[in-house]
Every structure is written in C-alpha cells, then in structure tokens.
Specification:
By secondary structure, the protein is of the alpha/beta class. Helices cover 25% and strands 26% of the residues. It contains ten helices and 18 strands. The strands form four sheets. A seven-stranded mixed sheet has the order 6-5-4-3-2-1-18. It has a seven-stranded mixed sheet with strand order 7-8-9-14-15-16-17, with helices on one face. A two-stranded antiparallel ribbon has the order 10-13. The longest helix has 14 residues.
Length: 311
C-alpha cells in the first residue's frame, strides 16, 4: 500500500504556549511532501519529525494570520542555506506574495532556487494542484480574513496482476499495463478473458480534509463527505461557545457534529486555545458526538488506511 500520512508539526492557536507549536502539518503521499500552513517554529518541528526537506516542494497556506504563516520566511531562508535547487511552490492568498517578496529580497539574496507563488481564491472551491498521485481542492471557510481548507484526494492506482493467471493465459508483457488499467484480454483463439480473472482490485483511493480557523459551517459536510480523515479546528470547549462565535472559531462539539454529519471515518481536532492546561475536556465533548476522535499533538503521525470494501 502506498504511503499516505499526516504529520502534525503544530496544533496550537494564535497565543504561543510551552505546550503547543503554531499550526503546521505535512502530508506525505507516496513520498511527496505537502506542507499545510507554516506557523512560527515550523522548521524546527520539521527537523524533529525526521521528514526529508528535499521532498517538500509545495506549501498550502489557509489564510493570512501570523500563526499560520510567520514561519515561512525562516523556512525559505533555511532552504537557501541548504543550497536547495528545486523550485518551492507556495499556494496562497495573493496578498502573501506582496508581503513576502520584500523579505525574500532582503534576507535571501542569491538563493539557488526560486519561490513561485500560486494565488488562490479562498472563497471558491477549486482544484489548485493536480498530479498523477493526488489532487488538492480548496474548501471555502468563514473566518475573520479570507480562509480556506484543503481536500487531498488520492488518485486510484492500477489493479494488481495475478501473475499465475497471466502466465496461464500467456498474456504478453507488453499488454500488462493495459490489463492493470482494466482491459480484458483476447487470446489468439478469440476467447475473451475478463479482467477480473487476471487482476485483483487495488485499494480504494484515500482522502484527507483540513479545516482550520472557521466558524461552525455545516455546508462543508457535502464537500468532505466520507473522507478517511478530517482535521477540524476545535479551539474552544462548548462552555466558550459565545467566544467561539465572536472570534469565528469552532468548539470541539461542533467539530464532531461536522464529522458525524459528513460521515467521515476519523476526526482529529486541533488549534487549541492557550486557555486549556490540557485538552481532555475537548476530547470528551467531541467523542460524545463522534467517538472516533483523537487529539492532535506535536509530531503525531496519522496513517490513512483505505476504507474497508463492502460486499
């Protein structure tokens, strides 16, 4: 099974604490690394995670609050000192390029690689990245500044060849790729051998949805329905519901309602307010609604398993 992992680098909210780092994650899909948000201290957490810097080529920024992007200039500078040569692609609100370019020009002169900005519209649902392994789509959210989440959808992999059957029917090697992709085989005598006799189905494609910094927004359940893993902010407990509404954040109970209504497989909550000495209250509230909930924590690695096939 190909790798699909989510690595939590930081899961705190805006106010720094000694318990949590600012928001950042790395999604590892088939050994390609994609960073989501880059709060202060992210590059140190990246070191601790033992993820390979060289495999990180795309960064997705959900919105322009400091706890989600203050770590970018430091990371860009470090990449320069490491003599990186591959382009670094940053997918973000257009304003971030205007803000970062003067800092790059001042602090990172003579870099051996290029930083390429890809503007996104956080208010629109759109595919902003696509390759042979995965597509990334924006999830419009509602916060104090333009904000979006990101939906990572794995591409299907070819079927698995039954070597004994292809040998039995003398399938030429040159046709194996076509057989993997679903074609039947016709023997020299004209007999049609159905693909199901020659292959076994590949694992179902997996998906991950990231929703941070948003007011409770039931409309997103349609877009994220059935995802294998959902990260949803849970800044506050239900006792702070008024504060959550004022700041356009979500409670743990509300995050669990989103997970339940979207029929996701697993929920991880994070972006915790600094007011909590521990997050047990948040976890209990969420699990009362959606039992398959876990707490985000620094350097937690979540492996996304394929859904169990029915029938």
């Amino acid at each position: 099974m190909e790798k699909f992992e989510v690595n939590i680098l930081g899961c705190g909210s805006a106010l720094p604490t000694t318990r949590h780092q600012a928001t950042s994650q790395v999604v590892n899909i088939r050994e390609k690394l994609f960073m989501i948000d880059c709060g202060e201290g992210t590059q140190v957490q990246l070191r601790r995670s033992r993820l390979k810097f060289s495999r990180l080529n795309h960064i997705f920024i959900s919105h322009l609050h400091g706890d989600h992007c203050f770590g970018l200039i430091g990371l860009i500078s470090t990449f320069g000192m490491l003599e990186r040569t591959a382009d670094l692609h940053i997918h973000c609100h257009p304003e971030l390029e205007r803000l970062l370019t003067p800092q790059i020009d001042f602090f990172c002169q003579g870099m051996s690689y290029k930083v390429i900005f890809h503007p996104i519209n956080p208010s629109e649902k759109a595919i902003i990245y696509d390759d042979r392994s995965v597509s990334v789509e924006t999830i419009p959210l509602r916060h104090r500044v333009p904000t979006c989440g990101f939906l990572f959808c794995e591409k299907p992999t070819p079927n698995h060849i039954k070597r004994d059957m292809t040998d039995f029917y003398k399938v030429p090697v040159c046709l194996l790729n076509r057989i993997k992709n679903g074609e039947d085989f016709v023997t020299e005598e004209g007999e049609v051998i159905p693909n199901s006799r020659l292959t076994t189905p590949s694992d179902p494609p997996r998906s991950y949805a990231y929703c941070s910094d948003t007011v409770y927004l039931p409309r997103i359940t349609e877009q994220i329905e059935g995802v294998d893993l959902l990260f949803h902010e849970a800044t506050f407990a239900e006792t702070e519901l008024t504060r959550a509404r004022q700041t356009l954040h979500t409670t743990a109970r509300q995050a669990a309602c989103i997970a339940r209504d979207a029929k996701v497989k697993k929920l991880v909550i994070g972006h915790f307010s600094a007011r909590y000495d521990n997050e047990d209250q948040l976890l209990e509230e969420a699990r009362a609604i959606f039992p398959n909930t876990v707490l985000a924590q620094e350097n937690l690695q979540l492996t996304i398993q394929p859904s169990v096939k029915e029938g």
